[in-house]
Design goal:
With 318 residues, the protein is mainly alpha-helical. It has 11 helices and 2 strands. The protein has a domain of 218 residues. The chain has a two-stranded antiparallel sheet. The protein starts with a helix and ends with a helix. 42% of the residues are buried.
Length: 318
């Protein structure tokens, strides 16, 4: 009984974190699935957005303006990665690593050469806060993060339905054919990277408000969580969520499921020092599920269908 009571007590926090990180995962989805690029910039922008937001808020800037500035800062980071990739010919994964390395120093400078910076919910009007996670009010971070998720999905669904958005999707699907159709592939890649990292930075700004501080290492391993959410959403919901908006929703739900699984494992009593190991194991399992399904279950299904057809043919001959 203690296990279930502890798990239920921890679930609201896991869901809130999952929804906030789900926003980041949607940004990863844009580069990983829409643009078909491996972008590691997110490990840097996941710290940049929070750093910009917390610094501005502690200096008296309105929370919405701080969120906007965090989004713009993330877009600028994506712009750098895009320029390194398209203008300088550096492979996308290396361009992301270079930008990520540079952002570590930039984040330190943003926070006045401090490794972390706290913000007190009593002194500032935060949109989300850990202390409200169990309150049945509109200030509950689960409600706020859910609203952000719905609005973001609606905006992205509209945008990727426009001619510009469709050209970005075409660029990711087949860049050579897109280029032959007169689409500026390099521009679309840069724009996609900017949008993706802007969303990641927005998620970071919300997450730092939620936990009450910004940290220069906040983005370490963020790409793993983002990819885990994308893969979990794809594995569990790909057959029922075929619409683009629903695919984005599946990514957010994947992040929630990921954090619930992590919380379940921690509630079982595993050492928190093994969290990275647990994360790697969870991600590896969900990454392997599509392969296992294709290799074992589809093969078994075909064998059963073939055996049934042979049996029916034998009966007809008889």
């Amino acid at each position: 009984m203690d296990f279930f009571s502890n798990l239920l007590a921890a679930l609201p926090g896991a869901v809130a974190q999952g929804l906030i990180w789900g926003l980041m995962a949607i940004g990863v989805f844009i580069t990983f699935k829409v643009l078909d690029l491996a972008d590691l910039t997110v490990d840097g922008t996941m710290a940049t957005g929070g750093a910009v937001c917390i610094v501005l808020m502690t200096n008296g800037v309105n929370v919405w303006v701080a969120l906007l500035c965090a989004f713009i800062a993330g877009m600028l980071a994506g712009l750098v990665t895009g320029v390194l990739h398209t203008f300088m010919g550096i492979p996308a994964i290396l361009a992301g690593i270079l930008t990520q390395l540079a952002l570590f120093s930039i984040n330190l400078r943003i926070m006045g050469k401090k490794a972390n910076m706290a913000i007190n919910p009593d002194n500032y009007d935060l949109l989300v806060s850990l202390r409200n996670v169990k309150k049945m009010t509109l200030e509950n971070p689960i409600f706020v993060a859910a609203v952000f998720t719905i609005v973001l999905i609606a905006v992205l669904y509209w945008f990727f339905g426009t001619s510009l958005g469709c050209s970005i999707r075409a660029t990711g699907a087949n860049p050579n054919m897109s280029r032959a159709q007169g689409i500026n592939v390099n521009f679309n890649k840069v724009l996609g990277l900017m949008i993706s990292n802007g969303i990641v930075a927005l998620s970071s700004a919300l997450y730092c408000q939620y936990q009450g501080f910004a940290d220069v290492n906040a983005g370490r391993g963020a790409i793993v969580i983002g990819l885990a959410a994308v893969i979990i959403g794809e594995v569990l919901f790909s057959r029922i969520f075929r619409n683009f908006a629903l695919k984005l929703l599946s990514v957010a739900l994947g992040a929630v499921i990921y954090y619930i699984v992590i919380q379940l494992v921690l509630t079982l009593g595993l050492d928190t020092n093994d969290l990275k190991l647990i994360t790697a194991a969870v991600v590896a399992i969900f990454l392997a599920i599509p392969y296992w399904k294709g290799k074992y279950f589809k093969g078994a299904g075909k064998a059963i269908a073939k055996a049934s057809a042979n049996a029916k043919g034998g009966e007809d001959n008889a």
